[in-house]
């Protein structure tokens, strides 16, 4: 056999012969079971990475990244499922430590591409433990002219700069996927370089010994906790610096010998030769979920090790300890014992992971470590992907998408094995989807240069795409973008047009919106021309209303769900939680929490959300052309050209000094550009103190009525001057509205009028140009709660948003967040951090009730929102409260999310109490549901 070309099956059969067992299994392999986690399977191959627990007759090719038990688990001396490809070091450990039969182990050299079963495989050092490698796979496609698929599997790795200049890695820039070690993939994990940590350990040893020199009776024993393999760098450096052997036990010595360290004299099995001893991982204490020192065991060890030790200093080198952010090198001590927690990690930290992904710019990232990461659609996987949203190559995905239209429908890889379910799920919602897609294609034939015939290949393309790229835009994600677009674009835009926009903009919402406005007239003409005689043709049946309504609905064929935002399952709970349930609010919160995290990754942008939101908000203010469907659109709608006004208001040199603070402040208050000058004034006034600025903005002592803002600010600083639009001024100077916001005698049931009868302006409960009251949302929710019909529910929500668009476009975005139980875009990682108990406490104060009563009512209603509503209704009010505004509620949530430190709980409670005191009608119920449901991560 050519040394450059390997065949797993042949190798396997040869290995089996050495066992002298009966007839070897047939070379034809059964299909791969769907239970294999996709983080362990290289697409279009039968290569399984670190997946011995998923071994079976379906594969003969197993790859082992390194010798850590969580990666080799499933291996035993009786292993005979297939051949194991790994580095020479790992191979030696497998033979010597695990006693795996040598015939089944195929050691491969580093950096040298080999052909295995038709694919090219290269091993690269992973900077993890000795022998740890990353695998680079280049898998040819079925058709010879198509470029090979490239995958990088990092195993466990710690990124280092030299990887960027690694020649073997260069061809993998732009890879189809990176299977990434996401152990510490969270911004909260930032640990120092290994060198810094090693220096720290050495310096501690040095200073402790120096101290002992002064007191000659002291003899100190150093204990370093390690795994069976790993952290050798620390040990070697200690040996080098102190010219002293390191004591290890026999098992560790065996491993070190395999690694080639045994003979150089750095290590010894004789405890008397050294006062630096290596101990087992958990000896100094449990590390998970937080470190708990075991001083008793330490004392025992001191006695065991003989000598005349009077002190013990332990080191626990782990990444986990770094969770305790402020004590980067925490020390636990008791009597004569000290334990240093050293943030020494052989895994990449968050910044390093991002660095690597940025360098590789893959089409997607597949996380390999984390809770339920084995499911591609898991909450965790989704969150991980979000972290890399702007670093992956979305354009490549877009090109693939378009290329897919032209691909021969016959071409299908091995991919089919896993695809069936995913595809049927993906195409499931809305069987008419395919047809619509084809229509969309037909329409754009001209400018996209794609013939309608190729569209037939669409479904097979989808199938293939999903098979090889389960993380690619699936149907649900597409729906999410459609929703987002729907809220940014005029209502007459059809679903087909939305789909067009999504595909030509590479699924980037902002780009899609700008694309739209570049070709707005064209799109409008399309709709008009499509609207010929009778609406029989497919695309015409989607009138303006439908295009808004459709994406709002969960288009599941079952028709069970009436959910405006399909991703937000919790919304269902929020709106429909009428059946008493025995679970506590806290539990309920958790259960909805997990669902809540299935969010659109598309939204994640690296730029500050403030600017993004401003962009979208600006688009909201664009003219909404007359609806072609003849529905009651208002022709006399004023043209709110906000963009020009924004320019006028932009500061020139102002605010340069507190730029970051101002940006942060703007983000917190979710302010549009028009508020910037005002923000600058407050920030300058408070000399950059955001907390004080927020207090001024939200009114002192958490007064949400906002009256004090103007009172306080008026005399000393210039109010923002807005000449063009009175409405804008009103929004900035809140004291003018107050009770005038609400129109008298507007029947709440107007909202449930059919869309063609609903007049967004007349039927709204507030006046044109005024900020929208929260009552508008609460009334809609209340009606929704009693609505079982899907069409009715949709039109309710449509009416709600139409009024917002017509009267107060700036409130659309906060309303969308409130409807989806969010307080910010996903990537902002904002948390509300409140639970049922805090809400209960606020309820006690706001409604003058007590915990016992609340408990009782909760048992009766099973929903804290209903409980709150009941409390509110039985409360006597002297005067009608100040109307709650959508932006007030939203800002209050934002403010809650930034509270930290001592007394933050009471500040949060204060904010909630103020909100509660302003509740009217059914606002209380939905406010509380929002409070207990909003929670992130
Ligand atoms: Zn490892």
UniProtKB/TrEMBL annotation:
GO CC aspect terms: nucleus
DNA repair metallo-beta-lactamase domain ranges (all copies): 265-369
Subcellular localization(s) per the UniProt record: Nucleus
Keyword flag Ligase: yes
One Pfam family in the UniProt entry: DNA_ligase_A_N
SUPFAM superfamilies according to UniProt: ATP-dependent DNA ligase DNA-binding domain (SSF117018), Metallo-hydrolase/oxidoreductase (SSF56281)
Protein's UniProt keywords contain ATP-binding: no
InterPro entries assigned: DNA_ligase_ATP-dep_N, DNA_ligase_N_sf, DRMBL, RibonucZ/Hydroxyglut_hydro
GO molecular function terms listed in the Swiss-Prot or TrEMBL record: 5'-3' DNA exonuclease activity; damaged DNA binding; DNA ligase (ATP) activity
Domain DNA ligase ATP-dependent N-terminal: 773-931
Compositionally biased residues, Polar residues: 567-576, 608-618
Biased composition (Basic and acidic residues): 636-648
Keyword terms of this UniProt record: DNA damage, DNA repair, Ligase, Nucleus
Family designation: Belongs to the DNA repair metallo-beta-lactamase (DRMBL) family.
Protein name: DNA ligase 6 isoform B
């Amino acid at each position: 056999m050519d040394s450059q070309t390997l065949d797993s099956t042949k190798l396997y059969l040869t290995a089996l012969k050495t066992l002298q067992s009966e007839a070897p299994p047939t070379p034809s392999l059964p299909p791969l079971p769907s239970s294999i986690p996709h983080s362990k399977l290289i697409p279009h191959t039968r290569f399984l990475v670190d997946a011995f627990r998923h071994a079976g007759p379906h594969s003969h090719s197993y790859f082992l990244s390194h010798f850590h038990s969580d990666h080799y688990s499933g291996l035993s001396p009786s292993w005979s499922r297939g051949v194991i490809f790994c580095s020479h070091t790992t191979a030696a450990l497998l033979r010597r430590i695990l006693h795996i039969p040598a015939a089944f182990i195929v050691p491969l050299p580093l950096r040298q591409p080999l052909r295995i079963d038709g694919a090219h495989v290269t091993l690269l050092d992973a900077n993890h433990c000795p022998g740890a490698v990353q695998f680079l796979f280049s898998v040819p496609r079925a058709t010879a002219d198509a470029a090979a698929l490239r995958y990088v599997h990092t195993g466990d790795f710690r990124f280092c700069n030299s990887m960027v200049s690694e020649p073997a890695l260069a061809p993998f820039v732009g890879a189809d996927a990176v299977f990434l070690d996401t152990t510490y993939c969270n911004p909260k994990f930032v640990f120092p370089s290994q060198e810094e940590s090693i220096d720290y350990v050495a310096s501690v040893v040095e200073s402790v010994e120096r101290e002992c020199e002064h007191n000659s009776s002291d003899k100190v024993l150093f204990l370093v906790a390690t795994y069976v393999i790993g952290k050798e760098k620390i040990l070697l450096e200690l040996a080098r610096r102190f010219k002293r052997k390191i004591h290890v036990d026999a098992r560790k010595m065996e491993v070190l010998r395999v690694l080639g360290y045994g003979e150089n004299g750095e290590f010894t099995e004789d405890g008397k030769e050294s006062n630096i001893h290596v101990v087992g991982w958990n000896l100094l204490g449990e590390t998970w979920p937080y470190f708990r020192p075991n001083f008793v065991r330490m004392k025992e060890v001191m006695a065991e090790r003989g000598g005349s030790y009077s002190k013990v200093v332990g080191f626990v080198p782990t990444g986990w300890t770094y969770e305790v952010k402020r004590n980067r090198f925490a020390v636990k001590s008791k009597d004569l014992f000290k334990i240093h927690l050293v943030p020494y990690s052989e895994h990449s930290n968050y910044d390093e992971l991002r660095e690597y992904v940025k360098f590789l710019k893959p089409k997607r990232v597949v996380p390999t470590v984390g809770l339920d990461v084995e499911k591609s659609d898991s909450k965790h996987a989704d969150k991980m992907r979000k972290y890399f949203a702007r670093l992956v190559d979305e354009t490549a995905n877009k090109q693939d998408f378009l290329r897919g239209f032209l691909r021969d429908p016959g071409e299908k890889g091995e991919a089919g094995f896993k695809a069936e379910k995913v595809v049927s799920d993906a195409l499931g919602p809305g069987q008419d989807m395919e047809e619509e897609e084809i229509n969309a294609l037909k329409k754009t034939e001209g400018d996209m240069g794609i013939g309608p015939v190729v569209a037939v290949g669409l479904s097979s393309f989808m199938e293939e795409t999903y098979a090889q790229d389960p993380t690619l835009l699936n149907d649900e994600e597409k729906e999410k973008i459609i929703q987002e677009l729907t809220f940014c674009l005029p209502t007459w835009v059809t679903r087909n047009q939305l789909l067009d926009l999504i595909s030509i903009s590479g699924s980037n919402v902002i780009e899609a919106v700008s694309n739209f406005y570049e070709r707005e007239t064209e799109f409008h003409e399309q709709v008009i021309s499509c609207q010929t005689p009778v609406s029989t043709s497919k695309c015409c049946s989607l009138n303006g209303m439908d295009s808004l309504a459709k994406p709002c609905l969960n288009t599941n064929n079952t028709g069970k769900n009436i959910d405006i935002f399909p991703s937000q399952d919790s919304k269902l709970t929020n709106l429909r939680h009428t059946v008493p349930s025995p679970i506590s609010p806290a539990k309920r919160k958790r259960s909805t929490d997990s669902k809540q995290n299935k969010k659109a990754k598309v939204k994640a942008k690296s730029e500050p959300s403030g600017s993004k939101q401003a962009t979208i908000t600006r688009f909201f203010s664009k003219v909404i052309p007359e609806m072609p469907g003849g529905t009651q659109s208002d022709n006399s709608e004023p043209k709110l050209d906000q963009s020009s006004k924004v320019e006028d208001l932009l500061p020139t040199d102002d605010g340069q000094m507190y730029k970051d603070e101002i940006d942060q402040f703007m983000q917190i208050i979710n302010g549009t550009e028009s508020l910037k000058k005002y923000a600058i004034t407050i920030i300058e006034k408070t000399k950059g103190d955001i907390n004080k600025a927020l207090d001024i903005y939200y009114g002192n002592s958490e007064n949400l009525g906002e009256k004090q803002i103007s009172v306080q600010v008026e005399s000393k600083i210039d109010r923002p001057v807005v000449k063009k639009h009175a409405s804008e001024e009103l929004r900035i100077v809140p004291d003018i509205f107050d009770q005038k916001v609400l129109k008298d005698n507007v029947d709440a049931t107007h909202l449930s009028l059919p869309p063609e009868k609903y007049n967004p302006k007349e039927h709204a409960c507030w006046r044109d140009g005024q900020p929208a009251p929260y009552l508008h949302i609460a009334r809609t929710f209340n009606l929704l709660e009693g609505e079982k019909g899907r069409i009715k529910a949709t039109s309710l929500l449509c009416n709600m948003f139409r009024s917002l668009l017509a009267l107060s476009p700036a409130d659309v975005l906060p309303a969308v967040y409130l409807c989806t139980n969010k307080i910010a875009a996903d990537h902002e990682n904002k948390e509300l951090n409140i639970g049922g108990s805090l809400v209960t406490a606020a309820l006690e104060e706001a409604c003058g009730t007590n915990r016992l009563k609340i408990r009782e009512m909760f048992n009766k209603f099973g929903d804290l929102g209903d409980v709150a509503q009941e409390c509110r209704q039985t409360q006597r009010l002297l005067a009608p409260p100040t109307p709650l505004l959508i932006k007030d509620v939203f800002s209050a949530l934002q403010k809650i999310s930034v509270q930290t430190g001592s007394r933050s709980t009471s500040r949060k409670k204060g904010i909630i109490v103020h909100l509660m005191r302003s509740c009217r009608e059914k606002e209380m119920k939905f406010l509380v549901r929002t409070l207990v449901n909003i929670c992130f991560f």
